[in-house]
Design a protein that fits this description.
Layout lengths: L4 E6 L2 H13 L5 E5 L5 E3 L2 E3 L1 H11 L16 H8 L10 H15 L4 H11 L5 E4 L6 E6 L2 E4 H7 L6 E7 L8 H8 L3 E6 L4 H9 L4 H7 L4 E4 L2 E2 L2 E2 L4 H7 L6 H8 L5 E5 L12 E5 L6 H28 L1
Parallel strand pairs: 1-2, 1-9, 2-5, 9-10, 10-13, 13-14
Antiparallel strand pairs: 3-4, 6-7, 6-8, 11-12
């Protein structure tokens, strides 16, 4: 089965961990990691693509494990100078990271697509799997909060997730088109599995699903769709997932995330510590350690997820043929 195609939908840090595990057991040409672009924004005249860059750095072995974001061996001369000049310094850009944003912005202004630029950067940094933005069109996550409507990075970074979230919207989603190579992969008879990585369902996965026609393409694909819970013991390992769930009237739990995905998913991987919740999850549940502290654990979880997909494959294909 190692020759089969795998598509993984991912946000940033949490999703990148599983993407790295998948890259260790799936041949590079057979792994497509679909990056959320809802976090993208323009800052200091530059186009910033946080999730695509996190995936790129992680798969290249260049991620900053101390900070949890950005590049390793980073220096901060640019930010120090910007601060001294009274510039807008709430979104930190390291010197090495800055070069990526400058070059991406230059090439976008010359008419290249985001996906082509990401592919070229990945090639130059030695990334084997394909990192594919969900769309080359503009799509932006916005949040209605107790402080009014906010762009995602204002909420997430500038205000450090403090506002109470009341509603989410994905500006441009109705017009954004899925990347044609992604649609082709979802129709490919070699497709083994679609994996929804353990990313925040609201601000990492749902922007991908908001791209016009994306949900329909996932429903139509013959391969199983398996999601991995980003919640362990009622808490998110990273980010505001649990906080957002409470504010949106949901109990923070692995079961609640599965309910949010609904019948989009065929299988669901939950942490062994949440076994008691399995009875409240409709898709077929697989229990496994999901924390992924080290590389071995990331690889092991990737194996578990693919094995869960293989176990579902026959029933999924049978359902597709009946439909």
């Amino acid at each position: 089965m190692s020759q089969d195609l795998v598509v993984a939908l991912s946000g940033g840090i949490g999703g990148a961990k599983l993407a790295l595990g998948l890259s260790r057991i799936v041949k590079p040409d057979n792994l497509i990691v679909v990056a959320n672009v809802g976090d993208d924004f323009e800052h200091l005249g530059l186009h910033i693509s946080p999730d695509a860059d996190t995936l790129m750095y992680t798969l290249a072995g260049l991620d900053n494990t101390k900070l949890g974001w950005g590049r390793q061996d980073e220096t901060w001369s640019f930010m120090e100078t910007l601060t001294a000049l009274g510039g807008e310094d709430w979104f930190r850009l390291g010197d090495r990271d800055l070069a990526v944003h400058v070059e991406r912005t230059r090439r976008l202004r010359q008419g290249e697509t985001l996906s082509a630029i990401v592919a070229d950067f990945c090639r130059r940094l030695g990334v084997g799997p394909r990192v594919l933005p969900a769309t080359d069109d503009r799509l932006r996550t916005r949040l209605r909060t107790d402080e009014g409507w906010l762009d995602f990075q204002d909420y997430f970074v500038r205000l450090q997730c403090r506002p109470v979230v009341q509603e989410l919207a994905f500006a441009g989603g109705d017009d954004a088109r899925p990347h044609p190579d992604l649609l082709a992969a979802l129709r490919d008879e070699r497709l083994r599995a679609v994996i929804i990585c353990p990313s925040n369902p609201f601000i990492s996965v749902e922007p991908i699903l908001a791209v016009r026609g994306m949900r329909e393409a996932l429903f139509a694909c013959a391969a199983p769709v398996v999601a991995v819970s980003p919640i362990i013991g009622g808490r998110a390992i990273k980010g505001p997932t649990a906080k957002m769930m409470e504010e949106l009237g949901m109990i923070p739990s692995a079961a609640a995330v599965a309910k949010r995905y609904g019948d989009l998913i065929d299988g669901y991987v939950m942490d062994v510590g949440d076994a008691e919740e399995a009875a409240h999850v409709a898709p077929r549940v697989t229990l496994a350690p999901t924390l992924m502290i080290n590389l071995a654990e990331r690889e092991q979880l990737a194996r578990v997820v693919l094995e869960a997909a293989d176990a579902l494959a026959a029933s999924k294909r049978g359902r597709s043929l009946v439909a």
